[in-house]
């Protein structure tokens, strides 16, 4: 009723521990970028890694070494694609979205809000989260490639060099 046999429980315990150790090992070997804030590609790889680990632990027909090879393939592909995107801006634009300006000098960028499906209340929440009380004190709110918001305060210099790669849609 609760389990088929003790051997199945022992297998799950042993394979679960070994699979977990293997995944942690390969993630550490692949570097910090594999665990960075997610863009679409990172999200897919992370979900796939979790699925592989679950399959290795639960499914008797998937051997530990097959699961480890799947870890290596996915992490290797992720490493290669990020390596390539750092070296080729054209390739990077295929796999990553550009940051988008949502608010500029206290004014909402309505077209950008609509195209990115962001509400004004989400912008105000991000501004509050940055510890700012007045929208007029905000130089810009940017929707970053990982889905997070960056809130930039007004400054006296008028320079906005941090916005040089931000799409204004």
UniProtKB/TrEMBL annotation:
InterPro entries: DUF421, UPF0702_alpha/beta_dom_sf, YetF_N
Protein keywords: Cell membrane, Membrane, Transmembrane, Transmembrane helix
One GO term describing the cellular component: plasma membrane
Bilayer-crossing regions: 6-27, 39-58, 64-86
Protein's cellular compartments: Cell membrane
Domain YetF C-terminal: 87-159
Superkingdom in the source lineage: Bacteria
Coiled coil: none
Protein's membrane topology: Multi-pass membrane protein
Entry keyword Ribosomal protein: no
YetF-like N-terminal transmembrane domain mapped to chain residues: 17-84
Protein family: Belongs to the UPF0702 family.
Protein known as: DUF421 domain-containing protein
Native organism: Pseudoalteromonas carrageenovora IAM 12662
Lineage: Bacteria, Pseudomonadati, Pseudomonadota, Gammaproteobacteria, Alteromonadales
């Amino acid at each position: 009723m609760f389990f088929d046999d003790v051997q199945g429980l022992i297998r799950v315990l042993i394979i679960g521990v070994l699979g977990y150790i293997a995944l942690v090992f390969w993630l550490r070997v692949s570097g910090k970028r594999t665990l960075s804030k997610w863009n679409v590609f990172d999200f897919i790889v992370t979900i796939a890694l979790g699925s592989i680990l679950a399959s290795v632990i639960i499914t008797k027909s998937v051997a530990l070494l097959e699961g480890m090879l799947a870890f290596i393939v996915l992490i290797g592909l992720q490493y290669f694609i990020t390596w390539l995107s750092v070296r080729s801006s054209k390739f990077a634009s295929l796999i990553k979205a550009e940051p988008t300006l949502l608010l500029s000098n206290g004014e909402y960028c309505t077209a950008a809000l609509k195209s990115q499906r962001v509400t004004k209340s989400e912008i105000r929440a991000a501004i509050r989260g940055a510890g700012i009380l007045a929208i007029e004190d905000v130089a810009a709110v940017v929707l970053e490639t990982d889905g997070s918001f960056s809130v930039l305060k007004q400054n006296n210099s008028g320079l906005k060099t941090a916005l040089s790669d931000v799409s204004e849609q």
